[in-house]
Amino acid sequence: MQMNRRTLLQGAAALGLLPVLPTAAKATPNAGGHVRVAMGHGGTSDSYDPATYANNYIQAQTYGRNNMLTEIAPDGSLRGELAENYEASEDAKTWRFRLRKGVTFHNGKSLSVDDVIASINYHRGEDSKSAVKSLVAPVVDLRADGDWVVFELESGNADFPYLFADYHFSVFPAEDGKIDFSQGVGTGGYKIKAFEPGVRTELVRNPDYWKSDAAFFDEIELLTVLDATARVTALTTGEVDIADKIDPKTGGLVARSPGVTLMETAGTQHFTFAMDTRQAPFNDVNVRQALKYGINRQELVDKILSGYGTVGNDHPISRSNVFFNHDLEQREYDPDRAKYHLQQAGLDSVSVELHAADAAFTGAVDAATLYRESAAACGIDIGVVREPNDGYWKNVWMQKPWTAVYWSGRPTADWMFTTAYAADAKFNDSFWGNERFNQLLSAARAELDQTKRTEMYHEMQAIVRDDGGVVIPMFANYISARRDTVGAPETVGSNFDLDGLRFVERWWKT
Amino acid sequence: MISTLFRAKIPKTALFGLVVVSVYALLAVATPWIAPFRESEVVGGAYMPWSALHVLGTDNLGRDMLTRILYGGRNTLGIAFTATMITFLIGMWLGLLAAVTGGWIDQMLARIVDMMMSVPQLIFKLFLLSLFGTSIPALILIIAAVDSTRVFRLVRATASGVAVMEYVEVARLRGEGLAWIMIREVLPNITAPLIAEFGLRFCFVFLAISALSFLGLGIQPPMADWGSMVRDNATLITFGDITPLIPAAAIALLTVSVNFVVDWMLHRASGMKD
Amino acid sequence: MKSILKLVAMRLGLGLIGLLIVSFGIFFAVEALPGDAAEAILGQSAEPETVAALRKEMNLDRPALVRYGDWLIHVVQGDLGRSVATGRDISVLIVPRFSNTLFLAVTAAAISVPVALVLGMAAALWRYSTFDRAVTVGTLTSVALPEFFIGYVLIFIFSVKLAVFPSLSSIAPDMGMGERLLRTILPAFSLVLVVVAHMMRMTRAAIINLLAAPYIEMARLKGMSNARVIFRHALPNAVAPIVTVVALNLAYLITGVVVVEVVFVYPGLGQLLVDSVASRDLPVVQASCLIFAAAYILLNLTADVVAIVSNPRLLHPR
């Protein structure tokens, strides 16, 4: 099959996520101004070390000070950032990225291919302590070729360039193959003026920024405000201009506040209840089906998300994904079918324990409590066990047979399935192995024909939905708010909250 | 004569306190019969307004607020009472023992308590939690363990002043046993601060439960408790919403009432005639 | 007086030993909690070999006892070490946070202690009056409400409705004293509401407890005024329980204010401790805990000394 770069890029563009709610105001960017942002993430253990980035706060800061090879554009398509363009071999096993010229770091050093290679190598190899080590594990060789960075993969991956939009792959200045991130020096639109981990970051505009139509604020102050109420009051009283992670309960009240715009983004974030499919009774697919029919999805969306979300169909692919299977029937709360499946499993009733903590997702314990009530009518007795937040991911998730989980989702279908549903995946939190599914997964990854790929992903969604061990009742929208002193483009990214967290260089002060 | 004095002298505040506390206790006992719905029953949408059917509206999950308040009171009162009793059993006896015996026992107990208190509560609670798990008995034990250090210090401080009084010296010289001195000589003379402390500690347990829910602990769902109910809806306060005020008011009213009664007992314990 | 000095010296010595034991206890308590810094930092998506690599870099692969010994040797030499999570120097991390915490605690204490004592004495003086009842109801209501609740109510009144104080108390090192105070007022006020009731109630109770004592009766028969009786005769003998409770509450102002810090976004030591416990950053946990423990031990020592000095019988035990 012949494939040129253009069709591949179109394919990549089509892969992307489509934004759901364009912001209302149409305006042109203004340069200047000081913006204060209250973020519900960040802690004293945050640092510039790209191996350990773990939250939205450090992600926003990273997008301020650094660039990556690629960037997910507001419309969901992928575009080059530090890479001017990129191309694949026919089997999608060799990928070449051509580096942009004339880019300099904050310290005056000019960007070279070696910086990029060192920045990516930092996440590779035996001794890597990086959170994204597994993403670059399939890279067998990484080398420079003039202005090009060349990757050799162990098997074809049509979505490979997407990985380098990930904020962990920030490009830092390197010397002798080792990157220096200690001062937070990058090529980004802002320089670090002050950084107190867990408290604040002050960023000032980089006058030499290579992007001409980005980074409009003169100064940005990113504040860690962990308390949802504190964020909202700071916003409504005008102490900050932008606040993220609005408590859904107060969404309506925030939207009614004068001078404040509530922004809702339907992304890939979803909440799940993962069963250990190796253990009884979850090893019986009929029990799994019964449990899936026993949950009232709409009620959860209404009460746990206060309507800021959509019902899930027991597979992790979001509606905005190009491969989302629209023909798949939406599973509803149905006590009769739940009972039917229980009978098929040879049971009159079943008693199971569901472990949850608010560390899994805000409202997880409440969600489990609602689940318990709706399942009771199906002959399913769910005992809700509230677990401590501390150590939840270590002690409970993938340890107890049935647990509440949150997934922020992944930009591509392959990435999502490979992370949590492939039989050999480390985060296959339902310990699920379906032969057909796993065959399709590797086939689809290297498949460059969009129609065939779509068919495969559709079938995979159906398999996960009916055979999988994860109840996925809802996709949660990101809710954030800004004062009218801040302008945003008509189309904002939906891959993360706040314009894909790139608001730092895409928004402006009016 | 004493009984007439007693009847005549019961202050209005104490009477009010007694009535409120009795009503709370009665409601707690009678909850299963008087609550309009099941404890965990979902009866409608979230935050429904007050109506004839749902007198106090519904909570964030669409459960009847009145029912939740009633059950919450029943659960929380039971836990608070048990936890406070255990707290005082541990703290008071060890404090008395330390004050009356003095010497190395006193020093050892006091320094151990100093150390326990100087460990930040977060670590202390997390550690106890990893030992005991998250059941209700564990909850009670954790609260009692943390609070009894406070009671110990108060009792020791107050009792060591009494333990050096002449009448205690006399009792010692008489050859009275340790228990006799603790119970008959010292305890009666420190009841006032003890009672005052009991009144507050009892109410602090509600707060302790709400503080534990910060760590994701607390009472297991779907059981209701006032501390968590305040916490769940707290974010609505800054919008002037009154929903979170209902459980908070229930706690505040009880605190005030209990302490009105405590004041009266304090007054009687002090033996004052005015 | 000599015996007091001896006592203080002995207690300070015991305090040091206590600190040692506490540091040992905390180290192993946190060790015993599930998970370590490597796992905590990498979070939900931690893979075993990545965790192992990070653990090695953080020197977490050595036995706990060796790490504790190492830490202790450095601390004795005045070196608190580096944060495991960020590699930053701990003194740099802690000093500004601790000075913020002290600033808030001192502000709150400067208001709450005098207010509590005066209210307590006044309530004892005019017991069962309308004044006593009003104070009782007011303080008890404030103490019956969780801290975050009080904080939110204050924010609602003073930031949202009246717009006189900022709701964010995120003070920065380069702020002037005036702005610092302005931003500290609401959190300090919340803390005052939290601690006043306990101290005031104990003052009132301790004084009332003494009012039936024969010597008070005597003083009254001499024709002394009620206020004078309370101030001159009752108060000195009520010092022990009052001081104990005051010390407890002062210690609380230093060590227990994390909720208020979170609600007002105040960059104090409490939040640092919570973060470092969550990320299992033991050197930071240890350093913060040592500060807290020292504060407790010193305050308790002060309370005991004051109690002894105020009671001649304790001062000269037979």
> How many helical stretches of chain A?
15
Structural class of the helix and strand makeup of chain B?
A: mainly alpha
Give the oligomeric state. Answer: heterotrimer
- Please, what is the average pLDDT of chain A? 87
Main structural class of chain A: alpha+beta
Largest sheet descriptor of chain B: none
Alpha carbon gyration radius of chain A = 23 Å
Low-confidence stretches of chain B: 1-5
Tell me the distance between the termini of chain B: 16 Å
Helix content of chain B: over 70%
Query: What fraction strand of chain A?
Result: 15-25%
Largest sheet of chain A: 7 strands, mixed
Biggest interface: B-C, 66 and 75 residues
Shape of chain A: globular
Poorly predicted regions of chain A are 1-25
State the order of secondary-structure elements of chain B, H for helix, E for strand.
Answer: HHHHHHHHHHH
Principal-axes geometry of chain B comes out as elongated
Keywords (chain C): Cell membrane, Membrane, Transmembrane, Transmembrane helix, Transport
Subcellular location (chain C): Cell membrane
GO molecular function, one term (chain C): dipeptide transmembrane transporter activity
Membrane topology (chain C): Multi-pass membrane protein
Topology readout:
The complex is a heterotrimer of chains A (510), B (274) and C (318).
Chain A lengths: L4 H11 L18 E6 L16 H10 L4 E3 L5 E3 L2 E6 L5 E6 L13 H9 L17 E7 L2 E6 L20 E2 L2 E2 L10 E7 L3 E6 L13 E6 L3 H9 L5 E2 L7 H6 L3 E6 L4 E6 L9 H9 L3 H7 L5 E3 L23 H10 L5 E7 L7 H13 L3 E7 L5 H4 L6 E6 L5 H8 L14 H12 L3 H18 L2 E7 L1 E6 L2 E2 L9 H4 L2 H4 L1 E2 L1
Parallel strand pairs in A: 1-12, 1-13, 17-18
Antiparallel strand pairs in A: 2-3, 4-5, 5-7, 6-7, 8-9, 10-11, 11-12, 13-21, 14-21, 15-19, 15-20, 16-20, 22-23
Helix pairs in contact in A: 6-8, 12-13
Chain B lengths: L1 H8 L2 H23 L30 H37 L1 H16 L2 H12 L3 H28 L2 H9 L3 H9 L4 H22 L13 H8 L11 H25 L5
Chain C lengths: L1 H31 L4 H6 L5 H10 L6 H13 L13 H36 L4 H15 L2 H15 L15 H34 L3 H8 L4 H30 L2 H7 L4 H10 L3 H29 L1 H4 L3
Helix pairs in contact in C: 1-13, 5-6, 5-8, 5-10, 6-8, 7-8, 7-11, 8-10, 8-11, 9-10, 10-13, 11-12, 12-13
Family (chain C): Belongs to the binding-protein-dependent transport system permease family.
GO molecular function, one term (chain C): dipeptide transmembrane transporter activity
Pfam families (chain C): BPD_transp_1, BPD_transp_1_N
